[in-house]
Amino acid sequence: MEYLPEITGVLFDIDDTLVDLETAMGRTLHQVGADTLAHLSDDDWTEYKRLYAHDPLGWYDRFLAGELTFTEQRLHRARHAQASFVEEPLEGEAARHWNTAYEATLPLHFAPYDDVVPLLDALDHRSIPYGAVSNNVHDYQRAKLNRSGLSRFEVLVGIDTVGVAKPDPAIYLEGARQLGTQPERTLYIGDNRMVDAEGADAAGLVGVWLDRRDAGPADFTGRRITSLTDVLQLLPHVR
């Protein structure tokens, strides 16, 4: 593990880094699809949830590019995930009803990973400031953090804060600016190797890939951890 004795602040991605969004999505899909998808086998449910959460057609990227609204990208993902399992596409009134139910249900399942609060407590104890930089809008992510019991985050930068999304350097740099730390002394931790670790590195921060599944390629030479409990190993000399 590389030692970084001059790190003075930490920035985090939110979704699937701090908040277990994939689990929340899966539970929500089960609830809102209880009637129309009752015929799915366990394997079908696994595939349905995988397709929705992983978004292989890149609908969320099109939202970030300004081509779709947030609701539109969500419905496109749902249609693609359901295509193999239902005959009627999710359109019209059915789509509106599904989206309303999804929006109401998803926040009920927001929760942090088990390793989040212990790390934040440790950073607080060491007086190391921390914040979050997310590829979603500020107010939506603020509500998500609060619902997850993470209202302690004072610094939160969303795509509407500076008008760009990761991996544009400006969004990481705004996080460091609000944190009050020099970019080269600021860790940025996220679950997406390219957008989070490599993007933060390119912006001049210290990018760290959180590979929770421990499935990273053997030839990856960047900084990689498998749990947030490993973060303090990167800060051995911070008092």
Describe this structure as you would to a colleague.
With 239 residues, the chain is an alpha/beta fold. It has helices spanning 21-32, 42-54, 59-64, 70-82, 92-105, 116-125, 138-147, 159-162, 169-179, 193-202; strands at 9-12, 130-133, 155-157, 186-190, 206-210, 224-225.
How many structural domains are formed by the residues? 2
User: Any idea what the CATH architecture of the largest domain is?
Assistant: 3-Layer(aba) Sandwich
Summed up, the helix count is 10
DSSP strand (E) fraction?
A: 5-15%
Going across the biggest sheet, name each strand in turn: 3-2-1-4-5-6
Please describe the biggest sheet, giving its number of strands, its sense, and whether it closes into a barrel. Answer: 6 strands, parallel
Please compute the radius of gyration using only Cα atoms: 19 Å
Poorly predicted residue ranges = none
Give helix % range. 40-55%
What's the assembly state of these chains?
A: single chain
- CATH class membership of the largest domain: Alpha Beta
Tally of strands:
6
Overall outline: elongated
SSE pattern: EHHHHHHEHEHHEHEE
Mean pLDDT: 93
CATH fold group of the largest domain: Rossmann fold
Structural class: alpha/beta
CATH homologous superfamily heading of the largest domain: HAD superfamily/HAD-like
First-residue to last-residue Cα separation: 19 Å
InterPro entries: HAD-like_hydrolase, HAD-like_sf, HAD-SF_hydro_IA, HAD_sf
Keywords: Hydrolase, Magnesium
Protein name: HAD family hydrolase
EC number: 3.1.3.-
